[in-house]
Amino acid sequence: MRYIMFLALLAFSLSSTAQSRNRYYELGVGIGTLNASGDIATTNSMDALLAEVKPNFKVYGKKHFNSWFAIGIDVSAGWIYASDANHSNQARGLSVETGIFQANPFLELSLIPFGKFRQDNKFTMFVQMGGGYLAYNPNPNASKGYPADIVPHSGSYHTFDFFVGGGAKFRVGYRTILTFGISYHMPGVDDLDGIVNTSTISENDV
Predict the structure, then answer these.
(1) Of 27, 35, 81, 118, which alpha carbon lies 20 to 30 A from 98's?
(2) Which residues pair with 131 in a beta bridge?
(3) Does 111 score more than 80 pLDDT?
């Protein structure tokens, strides 16, 4: 909550100081992919990433205060999947599919002036940071039964999610841009993949 209040205060400050002629709004939709890292997805080889990639769908809105700064919120839904068969514990036989829903307010900074009033610039790089609500629904599966040190966590849960990201924007029309981006989400929980290993102290899932 403190982080969200900070975002709101910063947005108010930007709104107070920005020139009104440079303000505009941006609305968009997106399609992408999700991959996870945790107690099942223990490696990050390209083969494993491609085998486990799942879709993610997004809608978002932004308020640009000038050609550099914006605040926004995105709402997305998708899935993550992980299987021992693709990673370092192939004999264990665990897998999981987790439904993901997120609503994240964020700040955005364009590294090159860009936007409605900068038609001369056809390209920019940007960085984002934000955080908000995450709901997830893991459905773990154990084809050979759960080992004694593995506790399954199925059902529905929710938590706070923090993320950082960045990417590139390309102007493709007077009112249209195409954006490519990547983000790294840190929910602060260890059961996003539907299991908790009680024999080791593992890092939170991402």
Answers:
(1) 27
(2) 162
(3) yes
Q: List C-alpha distances in Å: 170 to 46, 113, 114, 124.
A: 27, 12, 10, 7
For the chain, count helices (H), then strands (E): 2, 9
Q: How many CB atoms lie within 10 A of CB 198?
A: 12
Rounded Cα distance between 40 and 138, Å, is 12
Residue type, 4: I
pLDDT, tens digit, for every residue of 22-51? 799 999 999 999 999 999 999 989 999 999
Write the pLDDT tens digit of every residue in 57-98.
Answer: 999 999 999 999 999 999 999 999 999 999 999 999 999 999
Buried b (16+ CB within 10 A) or exposed e, 25-49: ebeeeeeeebbbbbbbbeeeeeebe
Provide the 3-class DSSP secondary structure of residue 147: coil
The pTM score is 0.85
Give the three-state DSSP class for 54.
Answer: strand
Whose CA is closest to 33, among 129, 96, 100? 100
- Which residues, 6 or more positions from 9, have their beta carbon under 8 angstroms from its beta carbon? none
pLDDT at 18: 46
Give the model's pLDDT for residue 104: 97
